[in-house]
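Incident log, support desk, overnight shift.

02:14 A customer reports that sequence design results differ from what the structure should imply. Their input is reproduced verbatim below. On-call engineer (initials T.W.) acknowledged and began investigating.
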């Protein structure tokens, strides 16, 4: 019984050592948030790199109740 328990503990320890790393790599964007992400994600009337328009659209979204930092209610 002790031998089987020791082998099970050893198996669990070995499985933990063989797990692959779960890092995303070094993909990091150093661009400003208002620089844009690409055409498919752009809002109508907003140009990439226009900070004033970006702030205006963000303010409008917040006033309409769309807040990306607010959790979903259950």
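02:41 Re-run completed on a clean worker. Output:
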């Amino acid at each position: 019984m002790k031998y089987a328990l020791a082998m099970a503990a050893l198996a669990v320890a070995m499985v933990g050592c063989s797990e692959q790393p779960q890092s995303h790599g070094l993909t990091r964007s150093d661009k400003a948030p208002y620089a844009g992400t690409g055409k498919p994600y752009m809002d109508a009337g907003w140009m990439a790199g226009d900070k004033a328009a970006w702030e205006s659209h963000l303010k409008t979204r917040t006033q309409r109740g769309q807040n990306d930092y607010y959790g979903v209610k259950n």
